[in-house]
UniProtKB/TrEMBL annotation:
<dbReference type="InterPro" id="IPR014710">
    <property type="entry name" value="RmlC-like_jellyroll"/>
</dbReference>
<feature type="domain" description="Cupin type-2">
    <location>
        <begin position="49"/>
        <end position="108"/>
    </location>
</feature>
<dbReference type="InterPro" id="IPR011051">
    <property type="entry name" value="RmlC_Cupin_sf"/>
</dbReference>
<dbReference type="Pfam" id="PF07883">
    <property type="entry name" value="Cupin_2"/>
</dbReference>
<protein>
    <recommendedName>
        <fullName>Cupin type-2 domain-containing protein</fullName>
    </recommendedName>
</protein>
<dbReference type="InterPro" id="IPR013096">
    <property type="entry name" value="Cupin_2"/>
</dbReference>
Amino acid sequence: MMRVVRIANVEHIPLGPAAAVPGWTGGEVHRTRQPIIPEGESDFFNASIVNFQTGAQTGWHRHSSDQILVITTGNGTVADETHEVEVGVGDVVQIKAGENHWHGATANGYMGHITITASD
């Protein structure tokens, strides 16, 4: 059955302290997740909005499937082991399965993105 999600009505779930961007001296930074296609709702995809406070990033990690990021607010950085790219609203990033990477806000601003991965 079709489902419509109004992002403004999706609960923000705190993710706890996040990794800070290199050189950050502003104290603890945080992220929230807004599940828009929660685990178990689709046989194929998970999707959430992740909201990064100023200076917050994910830290290095990998996924078992490709990950798609759609930047929805602010500006940020996406990096793999050889590249670091500044991204902004409207940019779409594909990160291949197994690729070591991180993403998050800049030291001077916040960032939000929709993340889409395959259901495991």
